[in-house]
Design brief:
The structure is a single chain. It is built from eleven helices and six strands. The chain is α/β, with parallel strands linked by helices. It has one domain: 3-Layer(aba) Sandwich (Collagenase (Catalytic Domain)), CATH 3.40.390. The strands form two sheets. Strands 1-2-6-5 form a four-stranded mixed β-sheet. Strand 1, helix 4 and strand 2 form a beta-alpha-beta unit. Helix 2 packs across helix 4 and helix 4 packs across helix 5. The radius of gyration is 18 Å and the shape is globular. The relative contact order is 0.11. The chain binds zinc ion (ZN). Zinc ion (ZN) binds next to helix 6 and helix 8.
Length: 262
């Protein structure tokens, strides 16, 4: 439960007018913002104010944090929770921002783990969400994907979808849903779509969902979330059932907004 002081602090934060420079930043750096209705934009602004204030932000690898960085990331993260019951991603304390792609720190194998292959391939990544830890983002990718209306992917949506998924304790591709009926529908639909993706990838067929979604259920949900917000119209065509369950979960209909482009 939120204590009295935190509640008061939040009330005070949202009493402040939303700085016009911040709004200019969002308009510039987040394609989706212009598609939102006035009421949605107002609500998103309040979420951003609290989210920005409550998270601990760190610039890494020599990156100096600016309002532009914080606002751009906050706006995209908060889009996911715009219509969800939420507590401002309370499982995210810290956001680490690197100038560009980073190598993962090497993980030591656990005591009982037999190492058959390298635990983490040494690949540069543009983001990562740790279960009991921070979200890490590469600023250049974040900016690039946020700005471009043709961007098919979005690392902020991806990593924060992982955090939504982790809220019930498990990173298993199923976030907290409303009731049993929604769970039943979710499991049935997502399992089918996930298996379809795996089969298509194995057979070398072209897929709408990014192949990375075939890694496991958690990646499937994160990739599906990215494409739900970035390419909603295409998702309705290529994976209508997946679009439907995501629309029910997020309580948002991004495809309906695409006509609202400013
Ligand atoms: Zn991921």
């Amino acid at each position: 439960m939120l204590d009295w002081f935190s509640k008061q602090r939040r009330l005070k934060i949202v009493e402040e007018p939303f700085p016009s420079e911040w709004e200019a930043i969002i308009r510039r750096n987040m394609v989706h913002y212009s598609m939102l209705g006035d009421d949605e934009q107002m609500r998103l602004q309040r979420l951003i104010q609290i989210f920005m204030a409550e998270k601990s932000w760190e610039g890494c690898g020599g990156l100096e944090l600016t309002d532009e960085i914080r606002v751009t990331i906050s706006a995209q993260a908060c889009l996911l929770i715009l219509n969800l019951p939420h507590n401002y991603f309370d499982n995210v304390e810290t956001i680490l921002v690197y100038p560009s792609e980073m190598m993962l720190p090497e993980r030591k194998p656990g005591f009982f783990e037999t190492v058959l292959e390298p635990l983490q391939p040494e690949l540069p990544i543009s983001g990562q969400a740790f279960r009991q830890g921070p979200v890490i983002l590469a600023w250049d990718t974040t900016l690039d994907q946020g700005r471009h209306s043709k961007a098919e992917f979005n690392v902020v949506y991806h990593e924060f979808a992982h955090k939504l998924d982790m809220q019930d304790g498990a990173a298993d591709g199923t976030p907290r849903l409303r009731d049993r009926e929604e769970y039943r529908d979710w499991v049935k639909t997502c399992s089918r779509e996930y298996l379809r993706l795996i089969q298509d990838v194995e057979k070398g067929r072209q897929t709408f969902l990014d192949e990375y979604g075939a890694t496991d259920e958690a990646e499937f949900f994160a990739v599906a979330t990215e494409q739900f917000f970035c390419q909603p119209v295409q998702m309705i065509k290529s994976a209508p059932e997946l679009y439907r369950v995501l629309k029910t979960f997020y309580r948002q209909d991004p495809a309906a907004r695409t006509g609202n482009k400013a």
